[in-house]
Amino acid sequence: MPSEIELLEHLYERFNARDMEAVLMALDEDVLWANGMEGGHVHGRDGVRSYWTRQWAIIDPHVEPVEFSVADTGETVVEVHQTVHNLNGEPLHDQMVGHIFRIENGLVKRFDIRGAQATEQQK
After folding, report:
1. How many separate domains does the chain show?
2. What does DSSP assign to residue 119?
3. Taking the CA of residue 123 as centre, how many other CA atoms within 13 Å lie in the half-sphere pointing to its CB?
4. What's the rounded mean pLDDT across residues 57-64?
5. Contact 68, 78 (CB under 8 A)
6. Could you tell me the pLDDT band of residue 115, with boundaries at 50, 70 and 90?
7. Which of 6, 49, 63, 103 is the right S-S partner for 2, CB 3.0 to 4.6 Å?
8. Tens of pLDDT along 67-113?
9. What is the CATH number of the domain that holds 108?
10. φ, ψ for residue 23 (rounded to 5)?
11. Is residue 123 part of a domain?
């Protein structure tokens, strides 16, 4: 079984490649996933699939993991450089964001987002 960091690196790589099904297979069937566009969470693989389908129809996000750590709660925290463009390729956001993953039995059980900080380019 891959380590949690290897699992997450693979998920980010597949997400950026828009390989939705590969990412969904690494999520628990009852995953609770933060909805970064509308707030709250979506539930289950079908909820995440629907959310990403809506998201990718209006924006082009890219997330690069920069640092991995483990919180006192046992969750894996990933600092990511997130860039978001509109579908014409124009930049909308360039920021550092914290992603928090709860992984159980080798699958992502919960995903949360911690506040965004603009990078120097956006300030």
Report:
1. 1
2. -
3. 6
4. 97
5. yes
6. confident
7. 6
8. 999 999 999 999 999 999 999 999 999 999 999 999 999 999 999 99
9. 3.10.450.50
10. -70, -45
11. no
